[in-house]
Specification:
Deoxyribonuclease I, Chain A; six-stranded mixed sheet; about 25% helix
Length: about 300
């Protein structure tokens, strides 16, 4: 019965995601196209909101209200079309590890083989872990080179996670830096300055920087574009309100993805699972952030 309910979810997901384009308020939301004949790779940025016990134990009511899907299985249905997924806010307790392995198992059940790189807990206040999921048939995870960026353990409360992947066909390395800056009320701009001060600690080629920066792109561009020479790809609201106000449920443009000049971005979009689930309260069980994504090639 459980598998039948999940199959119902996947059918609804496919119809709602790929059958039409949705317009919500003033923004048109692009949905990721997972067709195998599309060139390049897809990368998703996802603050998964306290990813631990609540994700393992909760369920999502579908639009018809007659079925419920375990939250992590619903997440796997949303994420299965990507090749690389960077996730923030993984719990540092045992439930965080359980939630990571449960998502891995759920993704593997959907056809493609997956693996992940998991960070140690961050050092400062508001400690958390980061995880990068990746398709095993397309990438190798370089575990001995993937780690929290120690150069920022004093300048950033939650120091970023540097994940290193090797593309199987070409042997090229991809360097991914996953960030979660401190909340707006705690001055995340000061952390940006600390990042700028250690720019030499970052790789320069085939780099993807993404995260929940708790700042808009005009603030983060000051460092990632002007100092690092990277390019931002989003100027959209991706965090969620607690209530729908006049049909609008988006709050701030806190999430972004930056790429170095040797990465060619072919397409981009924001996966709006609120419109898929059909209810903001239920959708917020998945996260209070939508999922920006890019399709890219290595030059």
């Amino acid at each position: 019965m459980k598998n039948f309910k999940f199959a119902v979810f996947l059918v609804l997901f496919s119809l709602l995601t790929f059958g039409c384009n949705h317009t919500s308020g003033e923004e048109k939301i692009s949905k990721v196209n997972i067709e195998e004949n599309k060139s390049g790779f897809t990368y998703a940025q996802f603050n998964a909101l306290k990813y631990g016990e609540s994700k393992v134990k909760s369920t999502i009511k579908m639009p018809n209200k007659s079925s419920e899907i375990p939250t992590i299985e619903a997440m796997a249905g949303l994420l299965k079309g990507f090749d690389i997924i960077s996730i923030q806010e993984v719990s540092t307790g045992p439930w965080g590890g359980k939630a990571v392995t449960k998502l891995l198992d759920s993704l593997n059940m959907l056809g493609a083989p997956w693996d992940y790189l998991l960070s140690d807990p961050t050092q400062g206040p508001g400690t958390e872990r980061f995880v990068t999921f990746f398709r095993k048939d397309k990438f190798d995870g370089i575990h001995n080179k993937s780690a929290l960026l120690s150069e920022l353990d004093s300048g950033v409360n939650r120091e970023p996670f540097h994940s290193v992947l090797k593309e199987k066909k070409t042997g090229k390395y991809i360097h991914i830096y996953s960030f979660h800056l401190q909340p707006k009320g705690k001055d995340p701009k000061s952390e940006l300055q600390a990042i700028a001060n250690v720019s030499d600690a970052f790789e320069k080629q085939n780099v993807i920087v993404s995260g929940d920066f708790n700042l808009g792109h005009k603030d983060t561009d000051v460092v990632f574009e002007k100092v690092f020479g990277f390019t931002h790809h989003f100027e959209e609201k991706t965090s969620l309100k607690t209530k729908v106000v006049k049909g609008n449920y988006k709050l701030k443009e806190y999430d972004n993805i930056y790429t170095s000049t040797d990465i060619k971005v072919l397409d981009r979009g924001v996966l709006d699972f609120v419109s898929i689930v059909g209810n903001l309260d239920e959708a917020r069980k998945i996260s209070d952030h939508l999922i920006p994504w890019i399709r890219f090639e290595l030059k």
